[in-house]
Design a protein that fits this description.
By secondary structure, this protein is mostly helical. Helix content is 45%, strand content 3%. Helix 2 crosses helix 3 and helix 4 packs across helix 5. The protein is elongated, with a radius of gyration of 24 Å.
């Protein structure tokens, strides 16, 4: 089944398979399932055309995939343009939510780069 440009895995249960969509987590899935009235233990491959239509209609109300990514990028760009602390941290590629960077933040900062020190000249006395 294909929803919002994403192929959902056929053998997964509906409640797990819907989380493959960007912007849909477990809490959103439970809301959508409640709204549509579809059994959450049903496999994605066993859904009827009518149930797929109900799902798509319910998911149209939620920002997912491209629209959500675009909105997030616009928010970050806005922060960078107005020069907020968070925007500057985004621009520099550093953590923007107060985490320490002296010893951690490797995923954000990248691989370690060793910085060497220069030795003092011992000949001068």
């Amino acid at each position: 089944m294909r929803i919002a440009g994403v192929n959902l895995p056929d053998n997964k249960r509906l409640d797990i398979g819907l989380t493959y969509l960007y912007g849909i987590g477990r809490s959103n899935v439970s809301q959508v399932i409640k709204e549509t009235g579809i059994d959450e233990t049903k496999r994605i491959k066993d859904l009827t055309e009518e149930e797929v239509g109900k799902l798509q209609k319910a998911l149209d109300k939620i920002k997912i995939e491209g629209d959500l990514r675009q909105e997030e990028n616009q928010n970050i760009k806005r922060l960078e343009e107005i020069g907020t602390y968070r925007g500057i941290r985004h621009r520099k590629g550093l953590p923007s939510r107060g985490q320490r960077t002296r010893s951690n933040a490797r995923t954000k900062r990248g691989k370690r780069k060793t910085v060497g020190t220069t030795k003092k000249e011992e000949g001068k006395k």
